[in-house]
Amino acid sequence: MNSKTILVEPTAPPRPQADSTSARFESLQGKVVGFIDNAKPNFEHLAAEIGTLLTEQHGVARVLTHRKRTASLPVAQEALESMAAECDLVIAGSGD
Fold this sequence. Notes:
By secondary structure, the protein is of the alpha/beta class. The chain has a domain at about 30-95. About 25% of the residues lie in helices and about 20% in strands. The chain has helices at about 45-60, 75-85, and strands at about 30-35, 60-65, 90-95. It has a three-stranded parallel β-sheet, with helices on both faces. Helix 1 links the parallel strand 1 and strand 2 (about 60-65). The chain is elongated, with a radius of gyration of 20 Å.
């Protein structure tokens, strides 16, 4: 019996990483900080506590939070655009 075996590599090659880092702020005084809550348990408590610390100890002007509908879905485009327009920096978080 003469048969031919074909092996297939099912993985994709790695994508090149974009080399972009944001400049650091010299101060958070007067900045607007956003949190993207991935909808897992307990992140809202962590974000609230960090937001309070940032406001009281670092002079953050305002803290905004957007909670995703579920952890398995990406953030809605409108929410991303809104956070980008309103916030000086955004922290994406995960709870549990």
